[in-house]
Each structure stands twice: as C-alpha cells, then as structure tokens.
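User: Reviewer 2 asked us to show a designed sequence for the structure in our supplementary figure. I'm pasting the structure tokens here. Could you produce the per-position amino acids so we can include them in the response letter?
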C-alpha cells in the first residue's frame, strides 16, 4: 500500500522507514525538498520504525487513515525541535529523531525500544491539543501507515525569492542528472545569493538552501 504524502511549503526532510523494530529489516527512504520535489516513497505495510531528519520546526504526522477524518483513527505526531533532536554531524546538515518503535514512547535519540518498561506515546484527540516532541492517538500504527503529513511549524509563509527559485530549479536538475556537479553548484548558488538577499532572514535562507542539498 503506497503511502499518501501531504507536504506543506518549505519542507526539507529525509525519512527512512524500516520493516522491523530498532531500525532493522527492509529499508525505505523518501526525501523532500523546498522546491516541492520528492524522491522515493514508502509501502505503509512495512513501517515499524523510522529515522526522521528535517529542518528544525518541522512536524511529521503518521496516520493510519487517509480520509478527511484521519484524526479519529490512529496517528502520531513527531516534531523536530531544539532540545529533542539529534544534531547533524555536518554544520549545515539536518537534525534528526529516531523512532525505534512507532507505537511506543522512547527517547528521541534511542537506538532500541525499551523492552522492560514499555509505554506508548502521550495520547490526545487532536493535533492542536498535543505538546512536547511527540504525541498522538492510539490504536496501532505499525505496518498500517496510510498517510504522512509533513509541515513547517515556524515560517510556513516564507515565499522564495526569484533567485532562490532559479537556484533550486538548477540544483534539483543537477541532483537528478549530474550529482557529481552538485557540490560545486551549491557553493556557487550560496555565494551568489549572499550578494542579492538583503532581508533579515537572508542567512537563514542560505542555510536552508545548503541543508536542502548537502548529504
């Protein structure tokens, strides 16, 4: 069963799902870029654990239903927020969260699910009622993911400039057709944008551009 993806604007995220607990078994990866491009996908019948890497301020919601009333079925929200995410080994890389069992509550950096004192994530009836880095509605999500929603919680309304749009279009094409040329082109794009972006968020825009294409 192919997962339905509902992705908001400005999202940069890498999601790796595993068929078994503790990041074991068949591996499936999907990547999203701020340009709207998507690489890869998931079979929702083979998702028991996962690793999320995303720009800070991103939330990922796993849902057992893809209908309009999906919050009435099982779902789980996982947020990439400061203090509850693993920093990247690269200065401009994406922070991450590990989920060794999508039905259980473990630390955001856990490599294995707790077996002696297992507990589920905090339950709420609606997304707006949740707090902390993870929460949701129970009922069992393992191997029954129908839909995934990914949204920015902070600057969703940020509109790319013309220069950013052109740069991302070129970089997306290079990523698909000439990946070896991508690092050099990314450096050139970041340098060029540093001369033309003059808003208060110019440094953040350039950081996000780098994070979107650096491995």
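Assistant: Here is a per-position design you can include in the supplement:
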């Amino acid at each position: 069963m192919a997962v339905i993806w509902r992705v908001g604007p400005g999202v940069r995220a890498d999601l790796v799902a595993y068929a078994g607990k503790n990041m074991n078994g068949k591996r499936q990866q999907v990547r999203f870029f701020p340009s709207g491009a998507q690489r890869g996908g998931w079979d929702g019948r083979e998702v028991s654990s996962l690793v999320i890497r995303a720009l800070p301020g991103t939330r990922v919601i796993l849902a057992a239903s893809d209908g309009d009333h999906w919050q009435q079925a099982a779902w789980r929200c996982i947020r990439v927020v400061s203090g509850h995410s693993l920093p990247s080994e690269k200065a401009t890389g994406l922070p991450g969260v590990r989920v060794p069992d999508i039905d259980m509550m473990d630390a955001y950096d856990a490599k294995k699910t707790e077996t002696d004192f297992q507990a589920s994530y905090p339950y709420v009836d609606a997304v707006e009622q949740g707090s902390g880095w993870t929460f949701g509605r129970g009922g069992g999500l393992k191997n029954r993911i129908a839909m995934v929603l990914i949204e920015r919680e902070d600057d969703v309304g940020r509109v790319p400039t013309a220069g950013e749009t052109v740069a991302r279009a070129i970089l997306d094409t290079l990523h698909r057709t000439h990946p070896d040329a991508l690092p050099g082109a990314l450096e050139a794009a970041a340098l060029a944008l540093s001369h033309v972006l003059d808003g208060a968020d110019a440094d953040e825009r350039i950081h996000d551009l780098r994070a979107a294409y650096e491995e």
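For the response letter, you might also mention the following. The helical segments are 162-177, 182-196, 202-213. The radius of gyration is 18 Å.
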